[in-house]
Amino acid sequence: MNPQPTRTELDEQALERWVQLNSGNASQADWQAFQQWRQRSAAHAAAADEVEQLWHTLGHTQPPNLSAQVAPAPGRTRRVRRWAALAACVAALAVVGLHGPARVLTADQATATGERRTLTLDDGSQVWLNSASAVNIDYSAQRREITLLKGEALFQVSKDAARPFVVVAGDGEVRAVGTRFDVDLHRDRVQVGVAEGVVQVSSGGSRVRLEQSQQVSYQQGRAPSSVDLYDPSSGAAWQRGKLIFNRTTLAEVFEVTERYLPGALVVSGRLPNNPVSGVFDLDDLPAMLDVLSRTQPVKIVRLPWLTVVLFDEKNKSES
């Protein structure tokens, strides 16, 4: 006799089924299967009702502030977090659908999700654009300026002392003469790593000099962080079609992976600080996600426009 699923398991199943039904690829048979699933028991029906109600609510109103509602009973705490994650799914899809394309349309050069491109500029400098990245290019007699609108780019700069090479990212900039460096803009955080030569990073009214194998990060209106070590071989491995992790936390792994996946990636709750090490092929991300789902305490639901990562407590002790 099969054991009855827990409410957490039913919540996960309801979330997975409902997202699939709203993916645009669901058939009439899929809807019928969902109705049959929800009729299996009162618990199945309750899980289906909650996810359906929240989905429709989010379609007409702002996501509810679940933490401000009446404190749930101990057995319901995890369920509230899962519905909060569903709200994050809808919000993330709205951001991707409404704001992403508009920014790319203003760019001189842009890459699609999964695409990598090499640009050779007028002065012989080269730019490697990572997946889902966009830049504007503005060359004048006094200055060579690249604005990173989105994503990540690796720069190999031709020397020209009369015309500094400047990369603008966020509200800061990176200035170089002849060097090789990487600039990664992720949400409101910019990370700069130097493979060769010297650059100057300016942000929040402060400046930091970076030399080979050094990196800093900065956020809007803030001074650059303290200088840290940078490994060019792994930091720019994406240029070679690889992702390299060396004891990287699980949350950071999914943060890095997000830009290579179509649509949005949403993580449900706080993931454990499990270290992840390995070399993965960017041209075979399904294999990477399969490895993570088998070796880490996560369940990964993939759709054409959405990837949901759920903390899987059952596999926590096995990982």
Automatic annotation (TrEMBL):
Pfam families: DUF4880, FecR. It comes from the Bacteria. It comes from Pseudomonas cremoricolorata. GO terms for molecular function: sigma factor antagonist activity. Residues 110-200 form the FecR protein domain. Residues 12-54 form the FecR N-terminal domain. The lineage of its organism: Bacteria, Pseudomonadati, Pseudomonadota, Gammaproteobacteria, Pseudomonadales. This is Iron dicitrate transport regulator FecR. Gene3D superfamilies: 2.60.120.1440, 3.55.50.30.
